[in-house]
Specification:
Number of helices: 3
Mean pLDDT: 78
Order of helices and strands: EEEEHHEHE
Structural class: alpha+beta
Shape: globular
C-alpha cells in the first residue's frame, strides 16, 4: 500500500498528524500497526492545573479489533492497495471518529491500582488472558 504522512486540520482547526507510511510497532502487543496519530491533548494535573500537550496512539489490527470506531478504518487501510481521492474522504471521516474515541478514553485509577497490587503479588494474568485494561471509555464529555 502506498502510504504517506498527512496533516489534517479538524473542525476546531487543530492539527492532527496521521502517519501511515511506517508507523511504529504497537505499544500493547509489539506487533505491526496500520496508522499513527498525534493530536493535541490536555488534562488536569493533581494541583488542578490544566496541562496542554500532544498524545500519540497507534491503530493495531489485533489490539483494536472489535472496537466500533476502528473496524472500518482498519479494513480500509488493509484492503486497498492505495487510497485515491474518493477513498480519502472516507478515510478522513473514519480517522476523525477514531481520534474522537481516543479523546474519550481515560485511565481508571482504581483498576490501575488493583492491577498494580496484583502485579506486586505476582497474581496478574498474562496480557493475552486478560479481559480488559485500565483504559476505559469516558461516559460523558467534560
Amino acid at each position: 500500500m502506498a502510504r504517506h504522512c498527512v496533516n489534517a486540520p479538524n473542525a476546531s482547526n487543530e492539527e492532527i498528524h496521521l502517519r501511515v507510511d511506517i508507523p511504529p510497532p504497537c505499544t500493547r502487543c509489539d506487533g505491526p500497526t496500520l496508522l499513527l496519530v498525534r493530536f493535541p491533548h490536555s488534562w488536569t494535573n493533581g494541583n488542578g492545573q490544566r496541562i496542554e500537550g500532544l498524545r500519540e496512539s497507534t491503530l493495531c489490527s489485533v489490539c483494536d479489533r472489535g472496537k466500533r470506531e476502528t473496524e472500518a478504518l482498519s479494513q480500509l487501510l488493509t484492503v486497498y492497495d492505495k487510497l485515491d481521492a474518493t477513498d480519502f474522504e472516507s478515510f478522513a471521516g473514519l480517522a476523525a471518529a477514531w481520534v474522537e474515541s481516543l479523546r474519550q478514553e481515560y485511565v481508571d485509577l482504581d483498576l490501575l491500582a488493583n492491577e498494580h497490587g496484583q502485579w506486586q503479588r505476582g497474581n496478574l494474568w498474562p496480557f493475552e488472558e486478560r479481559v480488559g485494561c485500565c483504559l476505559r471509555p469516558r461516559l460523558s464529555v467534560p
